[in-house]
Design goal:
The protein is built from 2 helices and 3 strands; from the N terminus they run αββαβ. It is α+β, with helices and mostly antiparallel strands. A hairpin with a 7-residue loop joins strand 1 and strand 2. The longest helix has 9 residues. The protein is elongated and about 65 Å long.
């Protein structure tokens, strides 16, 4: 019973970002954040020639690859020569 309650608490409401881009001379961008997407507004914006980009706030968190510690065995010495004049 408690396990089910903790799982529900961990699950947060998903927040969407809707970017409405105007494809005219102004090139204005309107950003809306909400739990629900107003598809009627999106459809109206698209009919007027605009562009729409929809994303989830949760999906923006990117994990960066961890840097591996280099060993001396992996290190290499490189000697380079540039012969542009003789």
């Amino acid at each position: 019973m408690l396990k089910n309650l903790t799982e529900v608490k961990k699950e947060k409401a998903r927040v969407f970002q809707v970017l409405l881009l105007n494809n005219d001379a102004s090139q204005e961008v309107e950003v809306q954040e909400a739990e629900n997407i107003d598809f009627l507004r999106v459809q109206k914006h698209l009919k007027h020639g605009g562009s729409v980009f929809i994303t989830s706030k949760r999906s923006q968190k990117l994990t960066l690859p961890k840097k591996k510690a280099r060993n001396k065995k992996d290190a290499r010495r490189v000697t380079a020569f540039d012969f542009n004049r003789v």
